[in-house]
Amino acid sequence: MMNIQTKEFRKPRSRDIFDFINIRQASCLDDDDIGDLLVKSFTETYAEKLPHIATPQKRISELRNVKNRRENGEVCVLELGYRIIGTFSLIRSDSNQSESWIQKAGNLRCLAIDPEFHGLGFSEVLLNESERIARSWSLSFICLHVQKGADGVAKLYKKRGYIREPHGDFESHGLPVEGYFLRLSDIGMPLADQ
Fold this sequence. Notes:
Elements: E1 21-25, H1 31-49, H2 57-64, H3 66-71, E2 73-80, E3 83-91, E4 105-113, H4 122-136, E5 141-147, H5 151-160, E6 163-164, E7 170-172, E8 175-183
Parallel strand pairs: 4-5
Antiparallel strand pairs: 1-2, 2-3, 3-4, 5-8, 6-8, 7-8
């Protein structure tokens, strides 16, 4: 019997979860899934990290109102296969739904990753896309709000280049939120209108 040695004809390649993700604009067909993801993400994360904060029913209704955010800006989803695992909304600066306190600023809202996928770097993918959209709209800034006490979330945005701005603070559903903004020219890419 002859001993045949096999050769490796293909280079071994490690598979990366990022090979299987897709980011796209949401449609009305996604509204229920996005609403479910947002409620799950916010309630589970608050229960774990801010247990003293209960998510009021009015906030849950707002999280589920994806249609309103699509009509006033753009909602994107991050998919793994056919499963939505992340989302964000970017509200146009001229919308009456915007909570931005700076002119020419989009309002980043409802950024969430399914808790099963936390810690894998998917927030960066969503933030990259939100900044790309803001630039395509010729915006100079992005404003957002973080629940007071959500230090891990604030740290994520600060690491990205967002600056804490008390002028953006207000109360949302009876709870204090803190304002942050990102000057798009500060992240090393030229603005769309320059």
